[in-house]
Structure formats: structure tokens, C-alpha cells
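Hi R.,

Here are the chain sequences for the assembly we discussed:
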Amino acid sequence: MSTKERNWWIVAGVLIIVYALFPIAWIVSLSFKAPADIANGQFLPTVFTWQNYSQILTGDAASLFLPALRNSFGICLIATFLACILAMFAAYAIARLNFRGKKLILSTALAVAIFPVISIVTPLFNLWRLIGLYDTWLGLIIPYLSLTLPLSIWTMSAFFREIPWEMEQAAQVDGATSWQAFRKVIVPLAAPGVFTTAILAFFLAWNDFVYGISLTSTNAARPVPAALGLFSGASQFEDPTGATAGAAVVVTIPVIILVLIFQRRIVSGLTNGAVKG
Amino acid sequence: MTTTVPPAPPTTRAPAHAAPSGASDRAKAEQRLGWYLAGPAFAVMLLVTAYPIGQAVYQSLFAYRLTDPENRRFVGLNNYAVVLTDAIWWQSIATTVLITVVTVAVELVLGFLLAMVMATALRAIRPVVRAAILLPYAIITVVSAFAWQFAFDLNSGFVNSWFSWIPGISATTDWFGSFGSSITVICLAEIWKTTPFISLLLLAGLAQVPEVLQEAAKVDGATWWQRMWRVTIPNMKAAIMVALLFRTLDAFRVFDSIFVMTAGANGTESVSFLAYRQTIARLEVGLGSAVSVLLFLAVVLIAFGFIRGFKVDLSQARGEK
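And here is the predicted structure of the full complex:
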């Protein structure tokens, strides 16, 4: 590659980075603006202030934001965990066993994944009110499975297919018990796939908005995206812009940490499940 | 194409009737074990989708308002007639289709460019580019919608003051005051957020194009452009189609950005938003269910259209061999 060509690729790469980071940088910058500064028409604040963060973490918006943060973490982690356990068994069967119905299960997963969430939320809204699941953690965990489970099944079976299962037998031939063979050979090989799937499933659950605003009404179960949507609706504080930006930054931090640490795995998980056959 | 699928034991491959009874038992046991393991996940998936959609179909046949349960009565297909003859429905369909077509078309081109850069980008900057590109994908849609809304907002935004040199944009340009400009901002936000997903799928597709073919074309004197159209793109057709299918279906369900940015004002209401407004906000369960069912049918139609029309090989998408 000539130096000139090289420089062009670097420019292109930098352009992509700017493209990806610009809106994030903007909301971060906005979150450091004082109320008087919000309308300054500039990208950066004239004076940096932590005011918005103290408002959502200890101030008058904390009663809306902190419970939502707790709900989001709790509900998403439980939904991710359940989906991964269920998907692990299913994916093992799909990758390893020969049984009729394999195709049916994978097609169902695909169908559920493309399902319009809003079509599920309407009937659930009624049903949950009837049976008392409205505005509860469980009332969100169950529908979140419809988001996380299909993706988990695909992604995990794609990962499991690539595991050299013969190694298990090889270990047994070498004198390992079947439990040892499983624990020492198969688990370390399967763990990265399970882990990657868990991250992707968590992103999906964490991102949910439709279920969040439709199936909750109080701090008992309302997740963060729904609470964010309400910031602007509620007139608890004068201008919700700064507080919303602050809250948006706080909920983005876990996502950024996960992306930075596990970027390679996330990419392989995303593309494995979808394209590589 | 998975080449690492463990070879199935020969006994299970043999036709059951020809196999010795032991092998057939083994096949049966494997069959049973398969369903024991995969059954729970399958049942949960059905439970959380098939049941609600069945319920929605049922409810769509009633005139039913949650605030007025006494007057719930069977009206047959009347709700559908009401929805399908209402201008609001067709407006929401038009808006949804517009957003879908614009965003998917732009994302495909942009995503392809990003994939090309990532595929050829120098080793040194590749991890940085990859991490950066994952951020829009991983960020909450509502957060992205707020970021874009605040940027264009009359009060908090910087766009008006930055771009005031462009004719038509001034300090008082209200982006969310009319249909065209609102849709533009909604599309921009959607494009920013979801292009990375497409580009990653296309990147994986690019990696599957055999290097030999590229070399051969080069030796034969094909220009860069010819190689692109005759070698690269035909060879990654499957990846392109899968990416298109997923994104189209996803775009057709657009809700979060619209909710945050315009709340459906100025004709920016999407089908999902209409269904939400009918059921959750107005408690018109019968009508809302009818809209939900119609949306569901539309999505099914699109999926089938893709699979039949473009011959998308879904076994590729499922990781089936």
C-alpha cells in the first residue's frame, strides 16, 4: 500500500470514528451545561457543571431515576440470565443432536425475532392487568424473554456448532471421566459463546422502550428508557433537558464499558448468528 | 456452510427401518433428548408471542374500551373496516414506509462504505474503528433519539447556529414544526444508530468473498469498479439480503425515536405508534388490537416478500447448514 493510499484509509477511519462518536460527545457535553447555558447555541458548555448529575443522583429527579436504574439492571440481568440458560440447552441440542423439529425451533426463533413488539404489548397490557402482573418485575421479565431468547438461541447455536466436540471423547479416551471431560474441555470452549450471547441479549433488553412504557406505571418496575421518556413529560423541574442528558449519559456508561472490553466478541456474536452459516 | 458440525454417529444417519433395533432406539432416545433440551425454550417462545398474538386477534373482533367494559360486544371484522377506511391508518402506513425505504437505502450504501473501510483499514486503527462503530449499535435508542432531538431543538440545539450559512436554516428554524424536517431528523437518528449493524453484517459478507476470485479478476485486467460489481457484490449477495431483511423489518417497527422526538405530531406517526396510542393511551383495546394484528400481517408480508422475491436463504441467517 502506498503512503498516499495509507493516508486515505486513515482519514476514512477517522471519519468513521467521528461519525460514531459525535452524537455521544454531544449528549455528554449537554449534560455538563447549566440550565442557563442550555440555550447557548453552542456545542460545548461555557462553564462545566455537575449540576445535572447531582439532580438525577441526589436531587429532585433522583426519585424517578434511581429506582428506574435499579429496575433496569435487575430486570435485564434476570431476563438475560433466564434466556441464556434456556438457550444453552436448546443450542446444545441443535448443535449436537440429530432430532426432528430442529428446523422448526430455529424458524420459530427467527419468527419471534422479527415479531413487532407492539403487537404483543397490546394483549399483554390487558392480560397483565387481569392477573396482576402489570407494573411488576415479572411482568417485564416475561416479555423481555421474547426479545432475548430468539437471539440467544441463534447466536449460541452458531457458536456451539464451531466447538470441536470430538475433543470430549478424546479426553475420555485419555482417561478423563465424562464429567471431567465436560468440565475441563467443553465448558472452557463453550463459555465464550455463552458469554457473548449474554452481552448481546443484555443490550436488547436494556434497549427496550415499548414494553417499559406500556407495562409499567410507577417506580415499582419502570425501566430507565421509559423513565427517560417521562423526564420531558413530567414538569417536576423546570427544564428537563440537562437532567435528561445526564441520565442518558449514566445509562450509556455500562454499554460503553461492555463495548470497549468485549468489542471483538460482540462483533463475532453479531455476525456469527446472522450471516455465517 | 458450517464445516465444523460434528459428524453425526452413523447409526442416526441410517434409515430407521433398515437400522438394527439398537440403533433405532438410540435415534429415538436422541430425538427425545433433543426435545427435552430444546423444548422449554421453544415453549417459552410460543408462550410469549403466539399466545399474545392469538389474544390480539380475538380482541380485535370486539368493540371494547377499557374504561367502558360493560359495553364490550362482538363486532366481527368491523374494527378492521374502521381502521382500513381511516385516513390516519394510511397516513401512518405512508410515514412508516417512507422512513423504512429512506433509512434502509441510505444505510445499505453507507454501511457498505463503512464495511469497505473496516475491511481494508490498517491493522493499527482497526480495533478503534470497530469499537467506535459498535457504540451507536449498543446505545439505547431512546438515548440516541434524545441526543438528536436536543441537537436540532430550537432551544438546546447547536445545529441552527452551526448551519445558519445554509439557506433555509436560521436561528429560528423549528425542525420539529413540520412533517418534512421532522422526518429528516428521525431518519438521521435511525440511520446513525443502525448503520453499524448493517455494516458489520456486510463486513462478515465481505470476508466470505474468495480472495482468489479478486486476484483472478485483477490479473484479467478488471478495473476496481468492475471487480466491485462483478465479483464482490454477487459473492456477498446472501449477506446483503440478510442485512436488508433484518433492517427492513426492524425499520418498519419504528417507535422509540418517534415517541421521543415528535410524539407523532405533524403526520410523523408510525404504525407502531398508532397501535400504541390506540391501546395504551386511549384504552381502545378493540381498535388497538386490530392495528396490532394488521402491523403483524404487514411484517409477515414483508418477510415473505423478501424470502420469495429475493430468494433470501434463511438457512444462512439461522446458521443452518
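Confidence is low (pLDDT under 50) at residues 233-237 of chain A. The two ends of chain A are 32 Å apart (CA to CA).

Let me know if anything looks off.

Best,
T.
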